[in-house]
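Data availability (excerpt). The following record was deposited with the supplementary files.
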Amino acid sequence: MTLSASSRTACTGSASESRSSIERPSLLTRRGWFSSVVVAGLAGRRALAAARQEAQVEPGVVDAHAHVWSGDTAKYPLAPGFTGKDLWFPSFTVEELLEQSRAAGVSRVNLVQMTWYGLDHSYILDAIAREPKRFAGTGTVPAVTDVAGPAPDRMMEALAEGGIRAFRIRGRSTRPPIHDGPRWLDHPGYDLMFAAGAKHNLALSFLLSPEDLPELDRMCARFPETPVIIDHLALIGRKGLFVEEEVEALCRMARHRRVLVKLGGFYALGKKEPPYLDMLPLIRRVVDAFGPGRCMWESDAPLQSKKPHSLRDAVAVIQEHADFLSPGEREQILVKTAGDFFFHR
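Predicted structure:
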């Protein structure tokens, strides 16, 4: 069954990539484990951030999800095994992102760690240290590995000192197969991550599809205080169709009060063409289920910023086209939800 443009069916819950950053999976191996973990520079970055806390950021939209990377591979080397051929583009720097963001009215951004940096978070940590009121981050730590390394909860705590506020986890359907079953989160490493998220108010940010939601639902019931973010509307519409059963599965997650949803990645969903009006019925269903206070806008730059797409078109979906939202609800989704979680702590 597909979701029609006029559908207003209530969802269960609390009411009111061919070349996609819906990223290609990669397996974590023994290569460069310790060399790729960058925590040593956090003290210096904290001092820099403290010195710049007084710097003000202009008001504007908060982007809950954007990717950046440097073309300077001498200063910011790729993880062992990655080459320049793996990059979507030669670079998409913080400066390039800011130029496009400002043109779209975006002033603050959550920077998401790129796969090809492995566990070395230097690039986004440096950006956060330079402008801690403008940037926060989503990092990557391994819950499951075959080497002796730091526990994932300890890595989360260390990275959080540098402004990393969330940690990305791939669903079973969006990562390489590791021969696990339906309970793909049933591992001590994930338990540690969920527990650390609850203790330190650090989100676990999931790149998954609807088939992965039942297992996430189980873990959210076990760890009700852990903030969880579902990226890219759970990829609903990735095949061009809005399947009712998938929409209902996402909306059921609203029963967990600490689950939030990112509204974005429009370039890869539905008809995949601006102005993305076919996304509005899905957005309405999700906002009805979760409430504006648990929905946050995301760009998923840089792919959202490549023609025929643009950040401005992605902002306009909420700001101009979602006429079922009040002005206050638009502000909540575009500014306050992500702003409160990533910056007002």
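Summary of structural features: The chain has one domain: 47-342.
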